[in-house]
């Protein structure tokens, strides 16, 4: 239908980019990007009317999106040559043909199109030997300034390489490293970099990607004033493993947890304050991030003094009121010896409740701070299995 609408309006219509790549690789992809030669907005409105879908326009980019009831979405753009006023800016858009549109894209594997108009339906458009690169498993930029104009492509190259188990072509790799070493990562906004970095964290080969980003100096430029070390990756691997355990066994503690935060807590905890401050400001981290790093350091110190015989209340006293993210990151730093005990502590505290509360204590004529002290005392004792009946204990305590 999308092709038929194009023909009705006398406009060539193509599906492009990642969808075509994945189709040729027989991989599922539900993100459809359409490019129209002509007035993309007119086409999009026409298609939306005929398909009775919701249409949202992004007029400055000559693009729009169709939203279907089941959450399915199609993005429509006008064929364009993006040119960049200065490196790392968002592109200005100039209307153009499909060839130029494809040439401006990140890598050859993402620069193919399939025509949709009924006359030529299904014809693969490949101007730059893209299919050949896809078949050989090569990540290759199409023009020398690609990484300079859009340094987020540095991260994208790593992501696609690891996702498909492809290889970054030699010259592309040289230009990638040049862009990193010449400080082009620093020219992009933190938000765009964060988005790309988060996409890497959502892929399956996270640790391989991180290791490669470390070796190429990408991490040192993303998180200025810090330094990549293999041991940091090993710590993060432990954190990831523990996060999986949490999701399976105590899902409550995975609520609102962000992988990006888990990574940065574990990556920056022993770095100079300057490193934490830089990433905090650049990547819009939560207000409590810096304070949490301090809490984390102290908790690691205290927890590593415990042993297998320590009681649940010992754990409780150290990590009481900690955010879910901190509870998870801690796992990367504690001795193996106490890890099982830490896990059973989390299981225990997960469904731990007290039958009595402050009011019960006050009803016995006790006032002020003492109420909290007594309540806490009862809580610790119950956690450690030293109390069976809280009310009885309370009565004896008062007597
Ligand atoms: N693109 C680009 N430069 C970028 C981002 C995107 O040239 N920095 C182009 C590529 O042609 C890409 C298309 O825009 O295929 C769509 O981008 P996106 O949806 O981010 O990527 P996909 O290739 O669809 O990857 P994924 O499978 O991860 O969604």
Automatic annotation (TrEMBL):
<keyword id="KW-0547">Nucleotide-binding</keyword>
<comment type="similarity">
    <text>Belongs to the tRNA nucleotidyltransferase/poly(A) polymerase family.</text>
</comment>
<keyword id="KW-0479">Metal-binding</keyword>
<keyword id="KW-0820">tRNA-binding</keyword>
<protein>
    <submittedName>
        <fullName>CBS domain-containing protein</fullName>
    </submittedName>
</protein>
<keyword id="KW-0129">CBS domain</keyword>
<keyword id="KW-0460">Magnesium</keyword>
<keyword id="KW-0808">Transferase</keyword>
<keyword id="KW-0548">Nucleotidyltransferase</keyword>
<keyword id="KW-0694">RNA-binding</keyword>
<keyword id="KW-0819">tRNA processing</keyword>
């Amino acid at each position: 239908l999308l092709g038929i609408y194009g023909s009705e309006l006398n406009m060539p219509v193509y599906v492009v980019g990642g969808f075509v790549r994945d189709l040729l690789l027989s991989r599922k992809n539900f993100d459809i990007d359409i490019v129209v030669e002509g007035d993309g907005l007119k086409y999009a409105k026409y298609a939306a009317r005929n398909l009775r879908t919701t249409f949202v326009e992004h007029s400055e980019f000559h693009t729009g999106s169709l939203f279907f009831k089941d959450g399915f979405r199609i993005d429509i753009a006008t064929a364009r040559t993006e040119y960049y006023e200065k490196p790392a800016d968002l592109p200005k858009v100039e209307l153009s043909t499909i060839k130029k549109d494809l040439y401006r894209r990140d890598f050859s594997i993402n620069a193919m199109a399939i025509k949709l108009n009924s006359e030529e339906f299904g014809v693969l458009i490949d101007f730059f030997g893209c299919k050949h690169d896809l078949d050989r498993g090569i990540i290759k930029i199409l023009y020398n300034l690609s990484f300079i104009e859009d340094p987020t492509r540095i991260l994208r190259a790593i992501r696609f390489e690891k996702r498909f188990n492809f290889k970054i072509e030699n010259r592309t790799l040289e230009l990638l490293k040049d862009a990193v070493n010449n400080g082009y990562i620093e020219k992009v906004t933190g938000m765009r970099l964060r988005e790309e970095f988060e996409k890497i964290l959502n892929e399956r080969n996270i640790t391989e990607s991180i290791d490669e980003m470390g070796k190429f100096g990408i991490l040192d430029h993303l998180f200025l004033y810090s330094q990549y070390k293999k041991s940091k990756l090993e710590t993060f691997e432990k954190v990831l493993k523990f996060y999986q355990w949490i999701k399976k066994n105590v899902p409550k503690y995975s609520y609102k947890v962000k992988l990006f935060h888990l990574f940065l807590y574990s990556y920056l905890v022993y770095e100079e304050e300057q490193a934490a401050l830089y990433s905090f400001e650049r990547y819009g981290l939560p207000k409590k991030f810096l304070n949490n790093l301090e809490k984390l350091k102290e908790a690691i110190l205290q927890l590593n003094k415990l042993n297998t015989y320590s009681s649940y209340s010992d754990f409780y006293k150290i990590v009481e009121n900690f955010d879910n993210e901190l509870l998870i990151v801690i796992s990367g730093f504690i001795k193996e010896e106490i890890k099982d005990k830490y896990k059973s502590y989390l299981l225990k505290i997960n469904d731990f409740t007290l039958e009595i509360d402050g009011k019960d204590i006050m009803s016995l004529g006790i006032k002020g701070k003492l109420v909290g002290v007594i309540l806490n005392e009862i809580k610790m004792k119950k956690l450690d299995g030293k109390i069976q009946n809280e009310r009885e204990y309370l009565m004896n305590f008062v007597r």
